[in-house]
Write a structure and sequence with these properties.
- With about 260 residues, the protein is of the alpha/beta class.
- It has 6 helices and 20 strands.
- The strands form 4 sheets. Strands 8-7-6-3-2-1-20 form a 7-stranded mixed β-sheet, covered by helices on one side.
- A hairpin with an 8-residue loop joins β4 and β5.
- α4 packs parallel to α6.
- The chain is globular, with a radius of gyration of 17 Å.
Length: about 260
């Protein structure tokens, strides 16, 4: 199993002989709701991949319909015939762009492609009644598991349904938005997640070398740091190892005997 960081929320995961592209933002800019005055962001350095330099992709996985996860300019440049799994809001975006093989997953629904099983896990409530997705990806042959959540996870239910995982990909630096409150988990919530799922490895997401402008970035409050989470993880005595790959870096995880 291999995991390659692109930047911010974008990853390439190779699992169960499938290459999965997660929440891709590969071309600039990133604009929320088509309103640059509200939020506009650019990569400081060119992304590790462009649509043209990606490896062959077997599946596109989208957690949310928001622009930093379901980036229309990037998706327009990808092959619309690549199968996609997406939250209901992201499905609407992919459909509008002409994608031909979309599986829309609501919370706790499952999808299987070859030996890869994907379960939609409740994620962040972006607005009342709109709960987006996290995902559990499982190699049905080896049993290897990856949990991916780019915002917040449910406080109840995941331990009973998911059990332990091999790799958790989740934020460790929180963000508090005006009116909405904290919508991205910080060190405290990330440690709670680690204590719940007990991953072998914890890999931070929602980190990016980006330049942002507009009204919204000036109002966002940041909570915590990589160092704070690392200290909390060490103090917890969990066996979980924190890995912080650089953009373009690939992590390779050895299989574990699950018998």
């Amino acid at each position: 199993m291999k995991l390659t960081r692109i930047d911010l929320n974008s990853w390439i995961l190779q699992i169960a002989n499938q290459t999965v592209l997660i929440d891709p933002w590969l071309v600039d800019p990133l604009v929320f709701y088509g309103q640059p005055w509200l939020f506009s962001a650019y990569h400081v350095q060119p992304p590790a991949f462009t649509p043209a330099t990606l490896p062959p992709i077997d599946l596109i996985l989208i957690t949310q319909g928001l622009d930093d996860h379901c980036h229309k300019p990037t998706l327009k440049q990808l092959d619309r015939n690549i199968p996609a799994v997406a939250s209901p809001t992201a499905t609407k975006v992919l459909s509008s762009l002409g994608y031909t093989h979309i599986t829309s997953l609501s919370n706790w629904q499952e999808f299987i492609q070859d030996k890869l099983q994907i379960t939609a896990v409740p994620g962040a409530e972006i607005q009342p009644g709109q709960v987006e997705n996290g995902y559990l990806l499982k190699n049905l042959t080896s049993g290897d598991t990856v949990y991916y959540e780019p915002h917040l996870y449910p406080s109840k239910g995941i331990e009973e349904r998911l059990g332990k995982v091999d790799v958790a990909i989740a934020p460790i630096i929180g963000q508090i938005f005006p009116l909405l409150g904290q919508i991205i988990m910080g060190p405290t919530e990330a440690l709670n997640l680690a204590q719940t799922l007990k991953p072998r490895y914890f890999v931070p997401t929602a980190l990016g070398d980006i330049r942002a402008s507009g009204i919204l970035p000036m109002l966002i409050k940041t909570v915590g740091s990589i160092e704070e989470f690392r200290d909390r993880l060490v103090a917890s005595k969990l066996p979980t190892e924190l890995l912080t790959p650089a953009p373009g870096e690939t992590l390779e995880f050895s299989p574990v005997n699950k018998t």
